[in-house]
Predict the structure.
Amino acid sequence: MKNSPFSSKENARYDKVHRQVVLPFKKSVEIAFKSIRVRFFRSLITTMSLILAISFLSFIHVSTDVANGMLATHDLEFRQALIRSGYDLGPEENSVDSSPKQQWLVILSLLVCIVGIVNAQLMAVTERFREIGTMKCLGALDRFILRLFLIESGMQGVVGAGTGALIGAFCALVNAFLRFGLKAVTAAIWQDVAVSISIATGIGLLLSLMGVLYPAILAARMQPVEAMRVEQ
Amino acid sequence: MEDMSNIVRVSKVTKTFQLGKIEVHALKGVNLEVATGKYISIMGPSGSGKSTLFNMIGGLDKPTTGKVFIDEVDIAQLDAYELAWLRCRKIGYIFQTFNIIQVMTALENITLPMIFGGMSNDAAVEKGFQLLELVGLGDRFQHKPFELSGGQQQRVAIARALANDPAIILADEPTGNLDLNTGEEIIALLKQLSQERNVTVISATHDIKMLNVSDQVVWIRDGRIDKIENREELSISVGQIDIRE
């Protein structure tokens, strides 16, 4: 540990409080939650691109799960219906996978989504420059700011990706019902569907955190002197 | 050993900004000593280097050459952690634009620096109520900033600045966005708190009303200290300016 530059009189007190610039995790969550609630529509727009991209991802995966469920029943009618509806199914194959074209579309939509999140979060950071500067004047460390943004984004990520995954799964099931009938939906393996929804939610959360990383680092590095500037 | 009664000591400070290819010398060698518990006003036209000097004293900016000591600690030697500690514990900031955190209530704004300072939530809330009482806003703790008038917001800011019992309060044009009456109230409050709690108040200002309560006025002109006037010398010049009774 480097020597404390504070004078001898201050030294004892300083050492005692050295680890005393703190922001408890619970308090961070509380601040982040309030921040989202107050800027609800702003957060909604940030979350919207995530909801859309993740619901697409979830739709594709759950559709595949339903198709696999149909194949697992070894019902020839289902097999024919699947081939008619465009699944590329060889005579020996007993499972389907999403087509490369679909995978590319999903990847593209996720890329667009992450760019959207970065953009929205950069704007959010700019709007909150003064708030961040003020917090730093009150003694906040860089990592407090970073943590606040990450928690906020994590909450948005869980809610947005969760909603998106459920919407996507629901749409996939409705789609299967309309195309193949109720029996197809009941044939779906629910474990697989649940796994698909969880994976989509996880990916969404990851995207949300990745998207906020650069803006949050930018915010955390901001000098508190910015808060003193009047013109904004 | 240096004289410990000086809370702030500025020694031969220069500051140069690089604006494109032009070098701007904002401060050209400033020496200043501020005694503990005094009420100091830094006066000067815009562009005089007033804000730059002010930011140096607040540990918000580092000098190009020279040294700034707060409580005999050279702030250039401090790392990020220690600077945060300094801002949290030693210095309270008051801004022209109040800078109340908009998403928090008045009480939460005041407790935030105490939370940073490691105080438990209950203790912080209790002290927050006391501070709100002190600035005359005891019944307004649940209000959001947009539900408060400018003067009330500035009172919240003063309470927030006092949260961790700082040695110095830095006020940047604290009355700049307030009307005459409210401005006077804020000045009176600052003066009263400075006396009661032996807090050094340093304010950068254009406001002539400030002169009346200042123990010392530092006039900055063109990056240098033009003159430092004590209160006694001042009263003559203030008498000539028509100040509302």
Remarks:
- The longest strand of chain B covers residues 6-19.
- Chain B has one domain: 35-59+78-239.
- Strands of chain B lie at 6-19, 22-35, 39-43, 65-70, 73-74, 91-94, 168-172, 200-205, 216-221, 224-230.
- The helical segments of chain B are 50-57, 80-90, 106-116, 121-134, 150-161, 180-197, 231-239.
